[in-house]
Amino acid sequence: MRLFIDTGSVKEVEEIAAWGVLSGATTNPSLLAKEEGDPGEAIKRICDLVQGPTSAEVVSRDAKQMVAEGRALRTLSEHIVVKVPFSPAGLAATRELTQDGHPVNMTLVFSANQALLSAEAGATYISCFMGRVDDMSVDSVAVLEEIVDALRPAGTTSQVLAASLRNPMHAVQAAKAGCEVSTIPYKVLKGMLEHPLTTSGIERFEADWQKRPEFATWLEGLVREAGTVGAAS
Ligand code: G3P
Protein backbone atom coordinates (compact mmCIF):
# COMPACT_ATOMS: atom_id res chain seq x y z
CA MET A 1 0.00 0.00 0.00
CA ARG A 2 1.44 3.40 -0.95
CA LEU A 3 1.43 6.12 1.71
CA PHE A 4 0.43 9.72 1.13
CA ILE A 5 0.47 12.44 3.76
CA ASP A 6 -2.79 14.28 4.42
CA THR A 7 -1.87 17.86 5.31
CA GLY A 8 -1.59 21.48 4.21
CA SER A 9 1.56 21.96 6.29
CA VAL A 10 4.85 22.23 4.39
CA LYS A 11 6.71 21.74 7.68
CA GLU A 12 4.98 18.42 8.33
CA VAL A 13 5.73 17.24 4.79
CA GLU A 14 9.40 18.25 5.13
CA GLU A 15 9.74 16.11 8.26
CA ILE A 16 7.96 12.99 6.99
CA ALA A 17 9.33 13.19 3.41
CA ALA A 18 12.80 12.77 4.94
CA TRP A 19 11.79 9.25 6.08
CA GLY A 20 11.66 8.14 2.42
CA VAL A 21 8.23 6.52 2.73
CA LEU A 22 5.88 9.02 1.02
CA SER A 23 4.54 8.42 -2.51
CA GLY A 24 2.27 11.47 -2.56
CA ALA A 25 0.14 13.91 -0.60
CA THR A 26 -3.42 15.13 -0.28
CA THR A 27 -4.70 18.54 0.74
CA ASN A 28 -8.22 19.85 1.16
CA PRO A 29 -9.72 23.32 1.79
CA SER A 30 -9.89 22.76 5.59
CA LEU A 31 -6.25 21.63 5.84
CA LEU A 32 -5.02 24.57 3.72
CA ALA A 33 -7.13 27.06 5.67
CA LYS A 34 -5.25 26.09 8.85
CA GLU A 35 -1.92 27.28 7.39
CA GLU A 36 -0.50 30.77 7.05
CA GLY A 37 0.55 32.07 3.64
CA ASP A 38 -0.42 31.47 0.03
CA PRO A 39 -2.14 28.11 -0.63
CA GLY A 40 -0.67 27.90 -4.12
CA GLU A 41 2.88 28.22 -2.78
CA ALA A 42 2.20 25.58 -0.13
CA ILE A 43 0.77 23.16 -2.71
CA LYS A 44 3.73 23.70 -5.07
CA ARG A 45 6.22 23.17 -2.22
CA ILE A 46 4.45 19.96 -1.17
CA CYS A 47 4.62 18.72 -4.77
CA ASP A 48 8.36 19.41 -4.82
CA LEU A 49 8.89 17.60 -1.52
CA VAL A 50 6.94 14.42 -2.28
CA GLN A 51 7.65 14.30 -6.04
CA GLY A 52 4.44 12.35 -6.47
CA PRO A 53 0.65 12.71 -6.85
CA THR A 54 -0.51 15.69 -4.79
CA SER A 55 -4.24 16.38 -4.52
CA ALA A 56 -5.54 19.97 -4.65
CA GLU A 57 -9.29 20.40 -4.29
CA VAL A 58 -11.82 22.41 -6.30
CA VAL A 59 -14.42 24.35 -4.29
CA SER A 60 -17.17 25.17 -6.79
CA ARG A 61 -20.41 23.13 -6.81
CA ASP A 62 -20.93 23.72 -10.53
CA ALA A 63 -19.49 21.14 -12.95
CA LYS A 64 -18.15 23.60 -15.51
CA GLN A 65 -16.56 25.76 -12.82
CA MET A 66 -15.09 22.64 -11.18
CA VAL A 67 -13.46 21.81 -14.52
CA ALA A 68 -12.13 25.38 -14.84
CA GLU A 69 -10.73 25.28 -11.29
CA GLY A 70 -9.27 21.82 -11.87
CA ARG A 71 -7.50 22.84 -15.07
CA ALA A 72 -6.13 25.90 -13.27
CA LEU A 73 -4.87 23.82 -10.33
CA ARG A 74 -3.09 21.53 -12.77
CA THR A 75 -0.92 24.47 -13.87
CA LEU A 76 0.69 24.53 -10.41
CA SER A 77 2.68 21.33 -10.97
CA GLU A 78 2.83 18.18 -13.08
CA HIS A 79 2.15 16.28 -9.83
CA ILE A 80 -1.24 17.86 -9.19
CA VAL A 81 -4.24 15.53 -8.92
CA VAL A 82 -7.54 17.43 -9.07
CA LYS A 83 -9.59 16.63 -5.99
CA VAL A 84 -13.35 16.73 -6.62
CA PRO A 85 -16.04 16.28 -3.94
CA PHE A 86 -18.57 13.54 -4.76
CA SER A 87 -21.81 14.87 -6.29
CA PRO A 88 -23.60 14.71 -9.65
CA ALA A 89 -21.64 17.79 -10.71
CA GLY A 90 -18.47 16.20 -9.36
CA LEU A 91 -19.08 13.09 -11.45
CA ALA A 92 -19.59 15.18 -14.58
CA ALA A 93 -16.48 17.24 -13.87
CA THR A 94 -14.48 14.06 -13.23
CA ARG A 95 -15.54 12.60 -16.56
CA GLU A 96 -14.53 15.76 -18.44
CA LEU A 97 -11.23 16.25 -16.60
CA THR A 98 -10.11 12.63 -16.94
CA GLN A 99 -11.07 12.54 -20.62
CA ASP A 100 -8.73 15.54 -21.03
CA GLY A 101 -5.95 13.60 -19.28
CA HIS A 102 -6.18 15.28 -15.87
CA PRO A 103 -6.01 12.82 -12.92
CA VAL A 104 -8.87 13.15 -10.43
CA ASN A 105 -9.20 12.17 -6.78
CA MET A 106 -12.95 11.84 -6.06
CA THR A 107 -13.33 12.64 -2.38
CA LEU A 108 -15.98 12.46 0.36
CA VAL A 109 -16.95 8.93 -0.69
CA PHE A 110 -18.71 6.92 2.05
CA SER A 111 -20.34 3.96 0.30
CA ALA A 112 -19.72 1.25 -2.28
CA ASN A 113 -22.39 2.79 -4.52
CA GLN A 114 -20.65 6.15 -4.48
CA ALA A 115 -17.37 4.38 -5.23
CA LEU A 116 -18.89 2.49 -8.19
CA LEU A 117 -20.23 5.75 -9.65
CA SER A 118 -16.83 7.44 -9.09
CA ALA A 119 -15.04 4.61 -10.90
CA GLU A 120 -17.43 4.85 -13.85
CA ALA A 121 -16.81 8.58 -14.05
CA GLY A 122 -13.13 7.75 -14.49
CA ALA A 123 -11.72 8.80 -11.11
CA THR A 124 -8.02 7.98 -10.76
CA TYR A 125 -8.29 7.79 -6.97
CA ILE A 126 -11.42 7.34 -4.85
CA SER A 127 -11.03 8.79 -1.33
CA CYS A 128 -13.01 6.53 0.99
CA PHE A 129 -13.29 8.00 4.47
CA MET A 130 -12.74 5.96 7.63
CA GLY A 131 -12.69 8.28 10.66
CA ARG A 132 -15.84 10.19 9.84
CA VAL A 133 -17.69 6.87 9.35
CA ASP A 134 -16.44 5.55 12.70
CA ASP A 135 -17.54 8.85 14.25
CA MET A 136 -21.10 7.80 13.27
CA SER A 137 -20.66 4.43 15.06
CA VAL A 138 -20.52 2.63 11.71
CA ASP A 139 -17.78 0.06 11.02
CA SER A 140 -15.54 1.92 8.56
CA VAL A 141 -13.45 -1.19 7.87
CA ALA A 142 -16.52 -3.11 6.74
CA VAL A 143 -17.45 -0.25 4.42
CA LEU A 144 -13.89 -0.10 3.04
CA GLU A 145 -13.83 -3.86 2.46
CA GLU A 146 -17.18 -3.68 0.65
CA ILE A 147 -15.86 -0.88 -1.59
CA VAL A 148 -12.72 -2.84 -2.50
CA ASP A 149 -14.76 -6.02 -3.10
CA ALA A 150 -17.26 -4.15 -5.28
CA LEU A 151 -14.63 -2.46 -7.44
CA ARG A 152 -12.27 -5.37 -8.02
CA PRO A 153 -14.55 -7.64 -10.16
CA ALA A 154 -15.49 -4.63 -12.29
CA GLY A 155 -11.84 -4.49 -13.32
CA THR A 156 -11.77 -0.74 -12.74
CA THR A 157 -8.45 1.13 -12.82
CA SER A 158 -9.60 3.52 -10.09
CA GLN A 159 -7.43 3.23 -6.96
CA VAL A 160 -9.09 3.02 -3.54
CA LEU A 161 -7.47 5.67 -1.35
CA ALA A 162 -8.25 5.30 2.36
CA ALA A 163 -8.74 8.74 3.89
CA SER A 164 -9.78 10.31 7.20
CA LEU A 165 -7.49 8.01 9.19
CA ARG A 166 -7.59 8.68 12.91
CA ASN A 167 -5.08 6.15 14.29
CA PRO A 168 -2.29 3.74 13.21
CA MET A 169 -4.69 0.79 13.24
CA HIS A 170 -6.64 2.44 10.43
CA ALA A 171 -3.54 2.24 8.23
CA VAL A 172 -3.14 -1.50 8.91
CA GLN A 173 -6.86 -2.09 8.34
CA ALA A 174 -6.77 -0.16 5.06
CA ALA A 175 -3.79 -2.21 3.85
CA LYS A 176 -5.48 -5.50 4.85
CA ALA A 177 -8.68 -4.39 3.11
CA GLY A 178 -6.71 -4.07 -0.13
CA CYS A 179 -6.57 -0.28 -0.54
CA GLU A 180 -3.94 0.85 -3.05
CA VAL A 181 -3.20 4.02 -1.09
CA SER A 182 -3.77 5.53 2.36
CA THR A 183 -3.48 9.24 2.99
CA ILE A 184 -2.38 9.74 6.56
CA PRO A 185 -2.24 12.75 8.90
CA TYR A 186 1.11 13.72 10.43
CA LYS A 187 0.18 12.62 13.97
CA VAL A 188 -0.93 9.18 12.73
CA LEU A 189 2.28 8.73 10.74
CA LYS A 190 4.28 9.55 13.88
CA GLY A 191 2.15 7.03 15.79
CA MET A 192 2.88 4.34 13.17
CA LEU A 193 6.60 4.90 13.70
CA GLU A 194 6.86 4.65 17.44
CA HIS A 195 6.97 1.52 19.63
CA PRO A 196 8.33 1.37 23.20
CA LEU A 197 10.17 -1.91 22.55
CA THR A 198 12.02 -0.30 19.62
CA THR A 199 13.10 2.63 21.79
CA SER A 200 14.23 0.34 24.65
CA GLY A 201 15.92 -2.02 22.19
CA ILE A 202 18.04 0.76 20.69
CA GLU A 203 18.98 2.00 24.16
CA ARG A 204 20.05 -1.53 25.14
CA PHE A 205 22.18 -2.00 21.99
CA GLU A 206 23.92 1.32 22.69
CA ALA A 207 24.53 0.45 26.37
CA ASP A 208 25.97 -2.99 25.53
CA TRP A 209 28.14 -1.55 22.73
CA GLN A 210 29.57 1.06 25.08
CA LYS A 211 30.69 -1.72 27.45
CA ARG A 212 33.34 -2.52 24.84
CA PRO A 213 34.94 0.88 23.98
CA GLU A 214 37.38 -0.84 21.61
CA PHE A 215 34.42 -1.66 19.38
CA ALA A 216 33.81 2.06 18.74
CA THR A 217 37.48 2.48 17.82
CA TRP A 218 37.20 -0.48 15.43
CA LEU A 219 34.08 0.88 13.69
CA GLU A 220 35.46 4.43 13.40
CA GLY A 221 38.58 2.96 11.77
CA LEU A 222 36.49 0.90 9.38
CA VAL A 223 34.56 4.01 8.29
CA ARG A 224 37.80 5.92 7.68
CA GLU A 225 39.29 3.02 5.69
CA ALA A 226 36.13 2.72 3.59
CA GLY A 227 36.13 6.49 3.03
CA THR A 228 32.43 6.60 3.88
CA VAL A 229 32.61 9.34 6.52
CA GLY A 230 29.22 11.04 6.16
CA ALA A 231 29.27 10.15 2.44
CA ALA A 232 26.00 10.04 0.48
CA SER A 233 25.39 6.49 -0.71
O1 G3P B 1 -8.32 14.99 3.19
C1 G3P B 1 -9.41 14.08 3.15
C2 G3P B 1 -9.57 13.39 4.47
O2 G3P B 1 -8.43 12.65 4.78
C3 G3P B 1 -9.90 14.35 5.59
O3 G3P B 1 -10.51 13.59 6.57
O4 G3P B 1 -11.96 13.40 8.57
O5 G3P B 1 -9.53 13.98 8.84
O6 G3P B 1 -11.11 15.68 7.88
P1 G3P B 1 -10.78 14.20 8.04
Structure in words:
This protein is an alpha/beta fold and 233 residues long. It has two domains: 2-191, TIM Barrel (Alpha-Beta Barrel), CATH 3.20.20.70; 199-232. It is built from twelve helices and eight strands. It has helices at residues 10-17, 29-33, 39-50, 63-73, 88-99, 112-120, 131-134, 140-151, 168-177, 186-193, 196-210, 213-226; strands at 2-6, 22-26, 54-57, 80-85, 104-109, 125-129, 159-163, 181-184. Strand 4 (80-85), helix 5 and strand 5 form a beta-alpha-beta unit. The chain is elongated. The two termini are 26 Å apart. The mean pLDDT is 96. The structure holds SN-glycerol-3-phosphate. SN-glycerol-3-phosphate is lined by residues 6, 26, 28, 107, 127, 129, 131-132, 163-164, 183.
Count of individual beta strands = 8
- CATH homology superfamily name of the largest domain: Aldolase class I
Shape: elongated
Ends distance: 26 Å
User: Quick check: average pLDDT?
Assistant: 96
Order of helices and strands: EHEHHEHEHEHEHHEHEHHH
The side-by-side strand order for the widest beta sheet comes to 1-2-3-4-5-6-7-8
Give the CATH architecture of the largest domain. Alpha-Beta Barrel
Bound molecules: SN-glycerol-3-phosphate
Relative helix content: 40-55%
Counting structural domains, the number is: 2
User: What is the SS-derived class?
Assistant: alpha/beta
Report the CATH topology name of the largest domain.
TIM Barrel
Main sheet, how many strands, which sense, barrel? 8 strands, parallel, barrel
Gyration radius over CA? 21 Å
* Number of DSSP helical runs: 12
